[in-house]
Amino acid sequence: MNFIEQIIEEDIQNRKNDGRVQTRFPPEPNGYLHIGHAKSICLNFGVAQKYGGKTNLRFDDTNPVKEDTEYVDSIREDIKWLGFQWAAEYYASDYFDQLYLWAEQLIQDGLAYVDDQTQEEISKGRGVPTAPGTESPYRNRSVEENLDLFRRMKAGEFPDGSRVLRAKIDMASPNMHFRDPIMYRILHAEHHRTGNKWCIYPMYDFAHGQSDSIEGITHSICTLEFEVHRPLYDWFCEALHIHHPQQIEFARLNLNYTIMSKRKLLQLVKENYVRGWDDPRMPTICGLRRRGYTPAAIRNFAETVGVAKRDNIIDVSLLEFCAREDLNKTAIRTMAVLDPVKLIIDNYPEDQVEMMDAVNNPEDESAGTRKIPFAKELWIERADFRENADKKFYRLSIDREVRLKYAYIIKCTHIVKDENGEITEIHCTYDPLTKSGMPDSNRKVKATIHWVPVKHSKAAEVRLFDRLFSVPDPDNCEEGQTFLDNLNPNSLEIKQAWVEEGLTYEKASTIKHFQFERIGYFYCDPDSSEEKLVFNKTVSLKQ
RNA sequence: UGAGCUAUGGUGUAAUGGUAGCACUACAGAUUUUGGUUCUGCCUGUGUAGGUUCGAGUCCUGCUAGCUCAACCA
What we know:
This protein is of the alpha/beta class. The protein has helices at residues 3-13, 35-50, 69-82, 96-108, 119-125, 143-155, 204-215, 230-240, 262-270, 285-291, 295-305, 316-330, 505-511; strands at residues 22-25, 54-59, 89-91, 112-115, 164-167, 182-186, 200-202, 219-223, 246-250, 332-334, 336-337, 340-345, 354-359, 369-374, 377-381, 401-404, 409-417, 423-430, 448-449, 452-453, 457-465, 492-500, 513-516, 520-524, 533-540. The chain is built from 13 helices and 25 strands. The mean pLDDT is 97.
């Protein structure tokens, strides 16, 4: 049980909010969701589920110049894909009328004023954390004048930036957010939902808590950087005499070898360092989806990393573990050769083709079996043969035996090289009595390798991904450099592979997740077609 | 240098004054027609100095380190 659940359980016990639990996930629709958001989604929906409450999806759309419906759609899709359903879908912009009324109320109560200072003057007047600020010369206007000015701001009489509405709190507060925070700014911009109805827009601090309040949120869970905003959150709820949700902060997720900043992720997309928001190397939810991560794997990851208040950097190996753990149980096995070299069985009949029995998933008997063709000439992995093999290497070498999975035990006799010294053919003999299922096949051999028949396999494109950045903390760079200098130049490698001929487009695109035996987990990319199969490596098997 | 927050193995996270546990990682072994899976074993930890207490990771004080805050962003 994490500290947030502890707080909630205490609140339930004390009958706070009549024992009700309600949370919300409040993204700003200005970017795609990433694995860090997934943690927050799992937390917010998770605790509500656990305590019989509900969770709203609320788009925090108070800044029309940054927000867009494209992002709204992707956010909805990603949350659903993760396996969560919100009780209601709201927008902070739904509350603009109410927020406006509340602003007038605070003016009436002498708790807000219109400031005519320039942005620079306001910034200067705020002072610095170590020294108090100074009060605005407009701070003590009459209620009537403030009301008149604020209404004219709303009516569009003033240009952008000419005036703001500020809460009258304390210019000497050690908390910078208490030094008369801005509640409303003038922005003659079209909003993705309210169009041109408004030319003044509320700031986060004057919108978020009130939105929570209107919806009856009981526990408003957010990340640590909002901790210093909490006194303000509380102040507005008190000043307005409205339902007062409890803001609770937790440490956001950080993953090594990647970045989580929306701004930087956007830059990677805009400047074509990746192929889009859903590039499988991106830590976005759509990127992970295209990479082949499953919702269950991500949910389990979110559960495993835990929830606390200290800064953390999670090792990507944990994410990878979660993917393997889920995929191992569910992924259909198939054989694919990514780096082929020809294996010729000299004593195997020239045109013979035998159908062998193969298991679809050793972890799940209900996945059944399939027949695969076997023939004299096969593709095997180049790495499964080594000319100078030491004791630690127990696959194929001259005079050594291995088992061809689901087929025969073979012994390498000799190899053929081209003029560059590169191996072009590996020759071997097979023992007909060692066919899988026969008594002699139980003979101990050190290794079993996968294969695909040269004449009975099909080509496929395989995309191998490495970490997007070559250092654990990409933001930590030397002077004069940026996170872009830490990009891994080899994060994408495209291979032409041979896969089982039975792996049709139909099969690949419906089953989607596969384990290429002895290699890793692969996902059928949406770029696939009847003509060409494309697979993304989700994660390799543990080495 | 003002305010707030945080310090537990390599990485995360528990222990709510009473045996420092779990997961990942690393390593070792067993099993295995995937060098996968499964199983077993194993290494490494309470930032620091005091104090309270029969007993402190936990409470108190000082120190140190890290993070956050000075957008008309969220």
